[in-house]
Amino acid sequence: MGAVYADEGADFRGPLDLTRAATAVLDDDGTIVGWSPAAEALLGYRPHEAAGRTVGSFVVERPGHYRMPTDLPGAAQARRQVLHMRHRDGRIVRVATASLPLASTRGGGPGRLLVVADADENDRWEALQSMLRGLATQSPVGLAIYDTTLRVVWTNRALFEEGGDGQYTGMGPDEQAADGRVLTPGRPSTLEETMRGVLATGEPVTDLHYSGRPPSDLAHDHVWSCSYYRLADPAGTTLGVCEESVDITERYLAQQRLDLLVRAGGMVGKTLDMDRTAQELAAVIVPQFADSVAVDLLDAVLAGDQPAPGTAPARRLVRVWDGPGPATTRPARRRDPVDLSPDSLQARCLAAGHPLLQEPGPDDTVRSRLAVPLRTEGAALGVVTFCRESHPDPFGSGDLPVADELVARAAVCIDNARRFTREHTAALTLQRSLLPRHLPRVTGAEVAHRYLPADSGAGVGGDWYDVIALSGTRVGLVVGDVVGHGVRAAATMGRLRTSVRALARLDLPPDELLTRLDELVTQDAHERTAVPDGGEDDALGVTCLYAVYDPVTGRCSMARAGHPPPALVDPATGAVHHPEIPAGPPLGLGGLPFQSAEFALPEGSVLALYTDGLVQGRGRDRDAEVAALHAVLADHRRPLESLGDRVVATLLPGPVEDDAALLLVRTRVLDRDEVAVWELADDPEAVGRARALATGQVGDWGLDGELAFTTELVVSELVTNAIRYASGPIELRLIRDRTLICEVSDTGHTSPHLRRAGSEDEGGRGLFLVAQMTQQWGTRYTPTGKTIWAEQPLADEDSPDRDSPDEDSPGDGAAAGTPPDGG
Q1: Which residues have a Cβ under 8 Å from the Cβ of 190 and sit 6 or more positions away?
Q2: Mean predicted confidence (pLDDT) in 6-25
Q3: 85 contacts 59 by C-beta, under 8 angstroms
């Protein structure tokens, strides 16, 4: 039998209906006495051809096979048979028949009415009737018919039994479930509005989700999938609305749980921050799964430590989130200690190592609580507590796997954040230990510095800054930036900073210092390449800027290796510009030379040295950031510390993904009465004149006699060495700063060598005496020769704030490899 599809023009009368079927009137013997036009159309015989024949003569199986039924007790019943009859044209027609008694046959008139129809059509009709009976009596799909006033006029057994005897008869759509509500977005809020729309437009509505509590289960919410279509009679007159409804509660809850897990996979653990992860978990859970959530972590986990396997003491828990989902994307961090009793739900959950449900007490406003341990690799990280206050249903067994999976995913993210916290803390500790704990006080400049580590999601970087006190009151200024983040970047930064300080102590000009530093980086890279599995060198591509400022001359020499140029503020006009300094390649690339630029810095000039993180980053326009920096620096008369705060507040108001270092310098030029300079002839008689000039100047400065005696000795030895081992003019310079500095410059390029003279040697003791009687001494080279300098502490001043000799300060090693002392 082929499939049958309903259409709007379908005739719902059966094939054996008297108004449609072929009919024959039979007498008592089964002889045809009447033949309808429909019978002629079905079998081809005209009335006069059929009249007088018995019905059996038309049957093909066996002649006479058809027999008149004699067992019908009443005239209202019919006996049905399926027969094969021969058509007038010879073909066989399969027909369904029904026989009905017409009246008493005693009078010899017509006895029965034989109704005949195509059997295939009748089979289809019977199947349709069977389906309708199944929908009415056996189908789990609820069916209801509403009239045009939306009153129930019929329901199938599914709804009748679900609601109880007669519960649905005469009830409106929104009265079928307590507190019902439409869940499908974009639909009217009530079923009544939906059905009125179907009546008005004729447009069917399918798969509308509706939630409520049926009369048979008033304690729990159910969800139905409802569909509606308009009913009309053959003339097109609207009769009402048909409703189909299926209880999809379990499927709906399963889908909701699956959606919850999918959302958790996309939203929880987006950052390596434990507090943010707890907040993201709360944002996913509330209000769909719970009304509030509390996340408690072990204090050791928050510190980045590896928790020990076993039971976690509840007294060490810290609450990082408690309440509904976060109202903002980044709420304030909270870390409240949690004091839990041993019999509390959370403590018992941690001890058991699996989820626990708690039924509410008589005075408890919380309907249900569920605690799930946060665990990874057999160790407890903490516990998550779910609470339902206004949620319609308490937690059940079906919620346990969902809660366990949600917490398991959060545990992985929190453990990753813990590992990162441990590495980040170690790197930050290393970085802070490698950065200068305090900057030296220098006469030639006022200094302020700021360092902002990257947000925890990016990790510690390799930015650094430094201020180095050099000989002759000069100041070395350094900023640098190592590519990458983490412990390796911080370690590389420390290695480079130490190298810069060591090279600076050689009094190298900036371009030569960067050249030496580049050679060290390149050599390290080659050595790492030669070692199997040596890894990448984080120093490759590092940028650096090194400057030397001389407060005596007011001039600054600067060179940079791929680093941004500094911003310079004119003290008179407040104009901000960037000095023209050759860029140079980043360190470790090699192949291009470095060049220094020298320029004057009037007293009160402000120099801002910074790393890229201050003015650029994701979503930031570098030009706009530099312009903002200029606007802040223009207010250069503000105290330097306040100026640094304003720069940071303006350019970096929130978390950043890269480290940023800022070094602000306000220059000072030494007064003329703090510096004394004399030109001396290349003649032994100049030694006596030098002693007299130095002694007189020390007296004019009001320094004590012992200092005058020491200065006279130092000048004598240094000038004598210059005359003996060099040629050309000699310059003597005294500087009264935090120390008394004595400098002798000549045109030679070799420095004297400090040695211990023997008991019978006539010379060689001069520099040894200088080294013993001064605080420190050394040699620096100039384009025209060299300068030997020595410093003595002043009795009325604190000790100079310079690095001690064990921290790469210039000392004996700075003069090694030179001719012997002739003093």
Answers
A1: 173, 174, 180, 182
A2: 74
A3: yes
3-class secondary structure, 67: coil
CB 573 within 8 A of CB 637: no
Alpha-carbon gap, residue 426 to 303, rounded angstroms:
11
Rounded to the nearest integer, the mean pLDDT of the chain is 81
β-partners of residue 319 are 296, 336
Q: How far apart are the first and last CA of the chain?
A: 128
C-alpha closest to that of 609 among 666, 679, 554: 666
Mean pLDDT of 409-426: 85
What is the C-alpha separation between 396 and 252, in angstroms, rounded? 16
DSSP 8-state assignment for residue 35: E
Q: In this structure, what DSSP letter does residue 533 have?
A: T
Q: Which residues of 46-58 are buried (b: 16+ CB within 10 A; e: fewer)?
A: eeeebeeebbebb
Task: Compute the CA torsion angle 465, 471, 472, 477 (nearest 10 deg).
Answer: -10
Instruction: Give the residue ranges of DSSP H helices in 560-636.
Output: 622-633
Residue 501 is classified by DSSP as H
Mean pLDDT of 127-145: 86
**How far is residue 144's CA from residue 443's CA, in Å, rounded to a whole number?**
96
Question: What is the Cα–Cα distance from 567 to 575, expressed in whole angstroms?
Answer: 10
Q: Which helix (H) or strand (E) holds 243?
A: strand 238-247
Strand 356-358 and strand 222-232: the pairing is: unpaired
Burial 748-763 (b: 16+ CB within 10 A, else e): beebbebeebeeeeee
Cα–Cα dist 537/541, whole Å: 9
Pairing of strands 379-388, 292-298: antiparallel
* Tokens of residue 705, six digits: 């006699």
CA distances from 573 to 211, 554, 642 (A): 74, 18, 20
Q: SS3 string of 142-210?
A: EEEEEECCCCEEEECHHHHHHHCCCCCCCCCHHHCCEEEEECCCCCCCCHHHHHHHHHHHCCCEEEEEE
Residue 495 CA to residue 501 CA, distance in Å, equals: 10
pTM above 0.70, yes or no: no
Task: Give the number of other Cβ atoms within 10 Å of residue 527's Cβ.
Answer: 11
615, 633 contact by CB (below 8 A):
no
Contact between 579 and 507 under an 8 Å Cβ cutoff? The reply is: no
Instruction: Collect all residues with Cβ–Cβ distance below 8 Å to 340 and sequence separation of at least 6.
Output: 314, 315, 317, 346, 347
Categorize the per-residue pLDDT at 95 as very low, low, confident or very high, splitting at 50, 70 and 90: very high
Left (φ > 0), alpha (ψ -120 to 50) or beta: where does 535 sit?
left
| Cβ 718 vs Cβ 788: under 8 Å | yes
Q: How far apart are CA 689 and CA 672, in angstroms?
A: 21
Helix axes 399-434, 487-504, angle to 10 degrees: 10
Distances (CA, A) of 796 to 575, 700, 707: 40, 15, 11
**CA torsion through residues 789, 792, 798, 801, sign:** positive
**How far, in Å, CA of 513 to CA of 780, rounded?**
13
Q: Phi and psi (nearest 5°) for 147? A: -80, -175
The Cα 481–Cα 610 span in angstroms is 9
45 pLDDT more than 90: yes
Q: Is the pLDDT of residue 680 over 70?
A: yes
Residue 329 pLDDT level (bands cut at 50, 70, 90): very low
Residue 572 CA to residue 602 CA, distance in Å, equals 9
% of the chain residues with pLDDT over 70: 82
pLDDT interval class at 815 (50, 70, 90)? very low
- pLDDT, one tens digit per residue, over 708-736 is 899 999 999 899 888 888 777 899 999 99
On the question of pLDDT at 228 being above 90, the answer is yes
Secondary-structure breakdown of the chain: helix, strand, coil percentages, each rounded to the nearest 5: 30, 25, 40
Cα distance between residue 736 and residue 473, in whole Å = 10
